[in-house]
Amino acid sequence: MARARLTIDLDAIAANWRALDARSGPDVETAAVVKADAYGLGVARVAPALAAAGARSFFVAIAEEGATLRDLLGPGPAIYVFSGMMPGDEPLFAAHDLVPCLNSPAQVANFLRELPDRPFALQLDSGMNRLGLEPADLSAVAAVLDGVAPVLVISHLACADEPGHAQNAGQLRAFRTMLGGLPETPASLAATGGILLGPDYHFAMTRPGIGLYGGLPFAGARPVVRLSLPVIQVREVAPGETVGYGAAWVAAGRRRIATVSAGYADGLIRRIGAGRPALFAGDVPCPLVGRVSMDLITVDVTGLAEVPARLDILNPHQGIDALADAAGTIGYEILTALGDRYERVYTGADPAGPAGP
To answer: Looking at the domain 31-212, which fold is it?
Structure first.
């Protein structure tokens, strides 16, 4: 039987990067965040497409991701690691020319002791209270940094997807204040949402992530993914009959129900069923019925004259954020949860290249 098919448009990812680069301004470098296997879409194909589009700096979460990325991109692009240098990571940073975003006085001291001649960045906590040096920490490391300059100073906005949230302006003020002690160092505050907040948030570098992959808050993003699920069986259901686990859905009249091959083992989390999104036959929506199970989803196809071989759960009519809304989550989780049982098809940007994991 044909597998469920995840189609990833590399040209759309490149176009989204160029659009966010244009919004960042001519004097601002636009990096690309490709952590978590390029948000689940396959860093082996996504990162080279972004490099071809013009990205020269990349961000990953951990050193192992950075090492993989260096092997893909070769020498040249800067690769920053958000988690800094963890104990035991020293050989990876040295061998793969990675730049840690150091988050604490202990990380700063360890890095300068173990790899004193290598570049590093500092991550500052401007109010998110997740990672980074607080003002007191920055003062504490000032002596150790005497004569040693970071190549970049970054922070991260907690509420950038809510443009009117007071936290944004508060973090901007805090970041600028902390930068007063590092006046000559390039700075970066804005991810996708921060780019959309405007030039005050852009500094020397922006770091788009979710917007590259078609997600909010970048409403102007081109859709990147299509997820097509093969139909295994179609059956007639009489009035009063139930469908799926828990007998949670009851047919109000005679219905035709298609069972498609995918489920929560494929990253289509069980809570999607509670929101009753549609699957699409071309442009025609067909409501999901019953509960999502491990490998199967059931769909009401009564209105179709002919049931196609596949139904789409992600397409231009229903993107990652619409599906996330149905499940009470966010588009990031939908993307990064996509499993490895899909047949992955890449279009655009040298589709004949290696398919990756």
So the answer is: TIM Barrel (3.20.20)
Q: Is the peptide bond before 217 cis (omega within 30 degrees of 0)?
A: yes
Over residues 69-76, the mean pLDDT reads: 97
Question: Residue 202: pLDDT above 80?
Answer: yes
- 39, 201, 213, 245: which is the annotated catalytic residue? 245
pLDDT per residue as tens digits for the range 111-150: 999 999 999 999 999 999 999 999 999 999 988 888 899 9
Domain boundaries, the chain: 31-212, 225-347
Query: 133 with 153: CB under 8 angstroms?
Result: no
Confidence of residue 1 (pLDDT cuts 50, 70, 90): low
Reported CATH class of domain 225-347 = mainly beta
Catalytic residue flag (residue 245): yes
Predicted confidence at residue 354, as pLDDT, reads: 42
Q: State the pLDDT at residue 142.
A: 87
Of the residues 35, 39, 332, 342, only one is catalytic, namely 35
